[in-house]
Amino acid sequence: MLAAVLILASCASRKQKEQTITLSGAFALYPLAVKWTEEYKKINPEVRFNVSGGGAGKGMADALSGAVDLGMFSREISEEEKARGVWWVGLTIDAVVPTINSQNPYLDQILSQGLTREEFKAVFIEKTISNWGTLLGGGQGQAMEIYTRSDACGAAETWAKYLDGKQENLAGIGIYGDPGMADAIVKDKLGIGFNNTIFAYDVASGKKRPGIEIIPIDINGNGSIDPEEDFYESFDGVLEAIATGIYPSPPARELYFVAGGKPQKQATLDFIRWCLTDGQQFVKEAGYVPVDTTKIEEYLRKLEE
């Protein structure tokens, strides 16, 4: 009798494990992943999810070690990671935006002329400018407080790549996580940093989060933000600029699920397939840009290989 009970308990435990999907990683993808798990459970109540943030670096490490079923990843996958056997599918697109405090004393000038890629590079990579007056061409002014990310993350790596560097090249005080970076900027009128769009804007209202302003990028380098470069006032405007390619790539980028080889658990494969098909209806609602249908088809084929 006891043996039968133990066998039944073991079978139940195995089934529960097979129906549990664990995810960790990029803060950029975290809100959409949570939305997807909530919607998926409505039609698949037997599936359980454990979802945690921690940054893209953690997502990749956890995926490759088998600590989670899926890592959430938010930068271009490197050749080294591919050589280590990482398997991936793209899911959606978002971007990293440069952020400042909405009470910055130079705000009007910043919004009018924006900053060029070269000027951002001088601040974050070359470390040759650390003063707002110098940056804006008005001579000496107040010193800026530069912030970067302390955790291995896609946002920092993507922002650094836009500036011809790597995360370790970025100047600034290290801040953990997207929420932490946003909070640091809100508390510092002279601060400059960067955030994933989902943490710079409020999805529900479509407005910038209180205390945060976006630095417009002077894409054509003419010293002024032209009408076609002025799309930051609403979240919809930024998402449209990302979707149409007006916003540079990087810092626009694709977001991924990664794993240490193709997932073997059927529940995991079914969930990924749903995210790439029926789950795409929630992408815009959650504040992201859908990937091209051609890429969706490519990723769906990877599930069948």
Structure commentary:
The chain is α/β, with parallel strands linked by helices and 305 residues long. The chain has two domains: 2-93 and 255-304, Periplasmic binding protein-like II (D-Maltodextrin-Binding Protein, domain 2, 3-Layer(aba) Sandwich); 95-244, Periplasmic binding protein-like II (D-Maltodextrin-Binding Protein, domain 2). 40% of the residues lie in helices and 19% in strands. It is built from 13 helices and ten strands. Strands 1, 2, 3, 4, 5, 6, 7, 8, 9 and 10 form a ten-stranded mixed beta sheet that branches. Helix 12 (266-276) packs antiparallel against helix 13. The longest helix has 17 residues, at 2-18. It starts with a helix and ends with a helix. Mean pLDDT is 94; it is low at 2-12.
Strand content: 15-25%
What is the total domain count?
Answer: 2
Major sheet size, sense and barrel closure: 10 strands, mixed
Question: Measured on Cα atoms, how large is the radius of gyration?
Answer: 21 Å
CATH architecture of the largest domain: 3-Layer(aba) Sandwich
Count of DSSP-assigned helices: 13
Question: What would the CATH topology of the largest domain be?
Answer: D-Maltodextrin-Binding Protein, domain 2
Q: Provide the helix percentage.
A: 40-55%
Tertiary shape: elongated
Estimated structural class: alpha/beta
List the helices and strands in order. Answer: HEHEHEHEHHHEHEHEHEHEHEH
Give start-end ranges of low-pLDDT stretches.
2-12
Give the N-terminus to C-terminus distance in angstroms: 44 Å
| CATH C-level category of the largest domain | Alpha Beta
Strand segment tally: 10
CATH H-level name of the largest domain... which superfamily? Periplasmic binding protein-like II
